[in-house]
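Side project, low priority. Logging it here so it doesn't get lost.
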Amino acid sequence: MQRVLVLLRGINVVRHNRISMPELREALEGAGFSDVRTYVQSGNVVVSSRASPERIAREVNTAIKERFGFDVTVLVRSRAELADVVRRNPLSKVAVDPKRHLVTFLSSELPGELIDRMSALAGEQEQFRVIGREVYSWHPAGVGRSPLWERLGGKALGVAATSRNWTTVTTLLAMAGDSTSR
């Protein structure tokens, strides 16, 4: 059985798509996942499953629709994939505040022309790198007024995406490696 990271986009944002984490864990356990653990309220889940990532995403989406009545984007990464994300961090030398260092997880790779357009949006101090299905970004002045963040956080990428700060990414990796605590 493998440990996988399940990232939900757009839950518990303001008043939309509200889910309590105990209820989410219960719904996913009811859908057949084991060792279900959540981190903070923004849709970070680690589960154990033998299913493929695609099947896990479909089953989590179905469980949420059935239990809570709304459709959310679900992205899945294996523990090994998440370890690669952390290991290859191309911004480790410049991103000194983990809350302003983000990883955007994508459903598929971005076309080169979109990456070029994103370069023009980056603020003076901002940096980003795209590696496979992840975008690493550094927002030293915060994301509040960043046109780059607006592109990464919005739906203009043309693929399903959700972002997490570096603290969350590394915490999820630790959780995925530890199946003994909840």
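Brief comment: The beta strands are 2-9, 34-39, 44-49, 73-78, 101-106, 127-131, 134-138, 161-165.
Revisit when time allows.
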